[in-house]
Structures are given as C-alpha cells and as structure tokens.
Amino acid sequence: MAAMLQPQIILLKEGTDTAQGKAQVVSNINACTAVADSVRSTLGPRGMDKLIHDDKGNTTISNDGATIMKLLDIVHPAAKILVDIAKSQDSEVGDGTTTVVLLAGEFLKEAKPFIEDGVHSQNLIRSYRTASRLAIDKIKELAVSIEGKSLEEKKTLLARCAATTLSSKLIGGEKEFFASMVVDAVLAIGIDDRLNLIGIKKVPGGNMRDSFLVNGVAFKKTFSYAGFEQQPKKFVKPKILLLNIELELKSEKENAEIRLSDPSQYQSIVDAEWNIIYDKLDKCVQSGAKIVLSRLAIGDLGTQYFADRDIFCAGRVTEEDLQRVAAATGGTVQTSVNNVIDEVLGSCELFEERQVGNERFNIFSGCPSGQTATIVLRGGSDQFIDEAERSLHDAIMIVRRAVKNSTVVAGGGAIDMEISRYLRQHARTIAGKSQLFINSYAKALEVIPRQLCDNAGFDATDVLNKLRQKHASGEGANYGVDINTGGIADSFANFVWEPSVVKINAINAATEAACLILSVDETVKNPKSESAQGEAAASAMAGRGRGPPFGGRGGRGMRRR
Ligand code: ADP
Ligand code: MG
C-alpha cells in the first residue's frame, strides 16, 4: 500500500510518447509482417505486379521488390528497416529484393510466438545468427562454379541466369531474347565496373522484339537547327570531336565592357564577334573530324557551316551520353578548340543516324575500346518500358555478379529447401532451447517455395511435402518447385539458376534486419519532433491501433489474397 503512495518519478518531458517491453516487440513484428505481405504476391515467375500511383498522377507498374517498397512510402519506424534492406539488396546484388523482405518478415513471424511466451529476444537473436552462419556455409558448399568454361559455354550459362531473373517479370515472355542481349551487353563492357557504360534507351512504340543492342553508344537526336537536314547522316570510320563549348554566335559585349568613341567603330565589334565564331568553327573543321558533338549548344550558324563541309554535328548532348561516347570511341572531351591534336579525336567503325519508332537516333557502333553497350528498348506504353528497364537492370546486375564470382545455386526454392533440411538436421544435435529457435529459422526458409506455389495457384502444402520428402531422401538437393506443372522438378537440370551471392546476401540481410527489430524493446518519441507524419508513425508503432502502418492506406490495403 505504501508503494502506491510514492510520488511518480518523472524522467522524460511531458508529452513524450514511449512504448516498451514485449508489446513493443510484438507490435514491431506485426508491422514488418504487414510490409512483407504487401510484396508477397510478386515473388516468382507467376508473381503478380503492383500498380502504384501517387497523388501527382504518376503510375508505376512493377514487380521489383525494391521499387515497390520505395514507392509505398512507409512511415512506420521499424518497418522502414525492411525498406532499407530491400534497397541495399538492390544496390549490392541487384536481384532478390522480394526474397529478402519475405525472409525477414518470415523470420520475425516465426519469432513472434516465442516472444509472446516470454522468451528473451537475445536468445532468439543468438540462435538466428548461428543459423544464418550455418546456412551461408551450406550455400557456399552447394554452389557450383561455372569457371573454366569456353566463352560460348559461359555465354549460355550466363544467359540462363539472366533468364531466371527475367522469368518473373513483365518481359518474361521474351526472356531468351533479352537474356542473350543482356549477356552480350555485359560481356561487351568487360571487367569495367562502371554500370553506366551500359545505356538503356527507351523508345515507346513498336514491339518489344524490336528492341536491339548497339555495341557502342546510341542516343536520341538532340535539338538541331536549320541546316541539319543537309548534313550527311552516315559515316564509315569517322573521326569524332567531342566538345564542351558553345558554338554559337555570341554577343561578346555582354562578356566585356566596351567603350566606343566613334559610332563607326561599332561595325568592327560585330566583325570581331563573327570572326571569333568562324575561327572556332574553322578549327573544328581543321581537326579532320567528321562528327562534332558538344555538350553545349551548336547554333544555326555552326550547323550550316558544318553542313557545307559535309560534317555532322550535334549540340546539347547530355553529359552522360558524351562521356559514354568518349569511353567508347577513345576520344577526350575538349574545352577549347585550340590545338586539337589527333589523339583526342575518337573514332568508330560506323556512325549512323537512324529512325527508331518516332525518334531519330545517333548510333555509334563498332567502337574500338568496345567498353560500352546500349540497349534500345521498344514497347507499347511508358509504364511497360519503364518496368522493362528495371527488369533488364536486374538481369544486367545478375550477369555481372555471375561473371565476377561465378558460382550458382539451384533456384525455384530448391536451395531454400535444402538449407532448411540441413538446419533441421543440425538442430537435432543441439540440446537446449536453441534447438527450437533454429528449427523455426529453418521453417521460415520454406516461405520461398511456399510463396512460389501460392503465387502460381498450386497447392503449397502438397508441393512442400513432396519437396521435404525428396530433400530428406538425400539425393534431391536440387529439387524445387516446377512452375510449369505444379509438381517438383530438378531446378538445376531445368536451368533455374541463381548466382549464389544473391542468396547469401539475402539471408544475411534478412537475418540482420530480423535481429535488429527483435532487439528493439522501446521506442521513445520526443515531443519536440512532433509532426503530422511522426505522429502517425509513432502511434502505429506503439500499436495503439490508431494509424495503420502504411500512411492512411490500411495495413493490408495492398494485399490481394
Ligand atoms: P526477387 O525480387 O526476390 O528476385 P522474383 O520475383 O524475381 O523476386 O522471384 C525470384 C524467385 O523466383 C527465386 O526464388 C527464383 O528461384 C524463382 N524462380 C525464377 N524463375 C523460376 C522458374 N522458372 N521456376 C521456378 N522458380 C523460379
Ligand atoms: Mg528477381
């Protein structure tokens, strides 16, 4: 009784919102599960796409976990961690973004009953970490190297990895076509690490099969002045001058103060201005270049001047394109036209201005250093091409990964089932509570094959039972979901391959995220930082049922099933 009369100790400022303890962990887990639910249905070749539109009227159709998560604009502080791991998976390895979110969500879901029963988070975290280490070692052990094959063989193998990535996307119907295009593009740029050397240009209209690969650079015709039509549009082995200066008649009096004592002197200034520009143009011509590109404007005077001398020019080329032309043709961008020596000029086998759909494209092919490639994408609508670009980006990243550390594992849930089996077996050798936790971790890994089945409309329980039995028999390590028949099949033999680094990274990141969320048992909101958004976030976090985890949408608004 005496204790009740004691004055309350006030530690934090009035208005501070705190939530702590078991309830807090559970509420964070619920938020993360809701996030995982929102991307669940996009996994795998039969996964659905999401159409996300914002209040500005932008619509995006995507199957890519990272893209969807970014666009969802999640405000819940704990659930944001899942957005971060999807993003980091995207930038680290490029693929497996849905996988990583699903795994993290499932690890947490499996942990929830333990937390509710009063298990200390740290015990779970320790076991999860051990399990993840064991899983990764197992993946490394199961990975098959594609090193030491001939170029042709390697190309086919890489194309298969790319095709697996593309099979879950909108352009999956043409996966072979695009897979070989991606492989050619990646092999063209060699070992260079700069991704921007592969350009993707989008031209709405046409069929996606009209997309093509340029072994070099291609960009849309820039703004051009009169006289352009008279310029030649095709050159064999031209020299290319790259500039970063303006070739326009400028009134120099704006750059300098000029004082005249006699009106007749005015003409001399006008003449001087003309001389300056003619001098510049003449120097370009003298350099022997047949193509002049500039990042800045090339005016009508210049355009006509070059046209009269059978030279092609383009002004206002974007920085990115100009750099890629420089890398491809071996030229150097000049900031002055004085003393243009031969070494700074680029060259290529063929330059052509070609019609692609409604656009005219400047295409440089057969470039000597061969370090660039451009994919020109065609397709019905803007949204379609945008999604196609994102899918190709995934595929490009995968092929690049596979080229670098060339080991692959069987996809279609096969590797996940195998690790799951291995962990269950290992768990049996452990005495103590850890056995249960590792078992739960193993069970969580099954979410991948289960979701692949669910999304394809198969009976997941049935397929999973078959898979468990096959993997337990000891010779079915490569068996995964057969997406065509609804049964099980040897994924490796069917060329459903994934670079092992995708799986390793996904398991690592998902485990870390899950452990991080489990280790948070209190959130404190400072009253000062109160803002409309912050309030919604904190109230959802505190689990008081006021704000849904997604700003105003309802936690499961995105869910289909
Ligand atoms: P993520 O964003 O995680 O890459 P995806 O939608 O690309 O998600 O789906 C990837 C999953 O689909 C992987 O587990 C992969 O093994 C599986 N998968 C891809 N192609 C096939 C296929 N033809 N048959 C079975 N599973 C496949
Ligand atoms: Mg993928």
UniProtKB/TrEMBL annotation:
Low complexity bias (residue ranges): 529-543
Region called Disordered, residue ranges: 527-561
Subcellular location: Cytoplasm
Superkingdom of this protein's organism: Eukaryota
Gene Ontology MF terms: ATP binding; ATP hydrolysis activity; ATP-dependent protein folding chaperone; unfolded protein binding
GO cellular component, one term: chaperonin-containing T-complex
Key words of the record: ATP-binding, Chaperone, Cytoplasm, Nucleotide-binding
SUPFAM superfamilies the record matches: GroEL apical domain-like (SSF52029), GroEL equatorial domain-like (SSF48592), GroEL-intermediate domain like (SSF54849)
Ranges annotated as biased composition (Gly residues): 544-555
InterPro entries named in the record: Chap_CCT_eta, Chaperone_TCP-1, Chaperonin_TCP-1_CS, Cpn60/GroEL/TCP-1, GroEL-like_apical_dom_sf, GROEL-like_equatorial_sf, TCP-1-like_intermed_sf, TCP-1_chaperonin
Primary localisation category: cytoplasm
Pfam families: Cpn60_TCP1
Listed PANTHER family: CHAPERONIN
Function: Molecular chaperone; assists the folding of proteins upon ATP hydrolysis. Known to play a role, in vitro, in the folding of actin and tubulin.
Subunit architecture: Heterooligomeric complex that forms two stacked rings.
Similarity field: Belongs to the TCP-1 chaperonin family.
Name listed for the protein in its UniProt record: T-complex protein 1 subunit eta
Natural source organism: Cymbidium ensifolium
